């Protein structure tokens, strides 16, 4: 089957990233058995193998996949705009004291939801739908579980507007770099067709 690598990659990558919500007791047992560094090493190894397989699988399957629907014109513009928003939340993940991070709680998961949805609306192939719908479903579930856990634990975060300004500037630079240079190099597609 042409999409086997992609599916195995998704299972490994998203599966490892789902252990905290689907099998927290197994995670704790593995941390106890392997130690925190051993667990992080195992986690990183399996996630990396999964990521490589899903990238290779997507590249292979993209060439011969079925067109399920033809995206309306203009969807690429919507994808570009939503991806910029996703970049802002992605960067907020790594800027301590960001008001965005304080408000959202889990900006990486929100960024993933926005990114996946953005790419679903502009890609009508079966392989694209499998890839982006998988990430969207995972991110929606992860966000819900993480926010519920925060509420149960009474987590409160504080943020500052100055950190959001830094976040937006870094996100704009990162978006420009990725959209105009790295996307074509890594994915093989020019987002703006230039």
Automatic annotation (TrEMBL):
Keywords, comma-separated and alphabetical: Membrane, Transmembrane, Transmembrane helix
- What is the recorded membrane topology of this protein? Multi-pass membrane protein
Q: Where are the transmembrane segments?
A: 43-61, 73-95, 115-145, 165-183
Compartment(s) where it occurs, according to its Swiss-Prot or TrEMBL record: Membrane
Question: What InterPro entries is this protein classified in?
Answer: NnrU_dom
Pfam families assigned to the protein according to its UniProt record, in alphabetical order? NnrU
Q: Which domain of life is it from?
A: Bacteria
Annotated NnrU domain ranges read 5-191
This protein's name: NnrU family protein
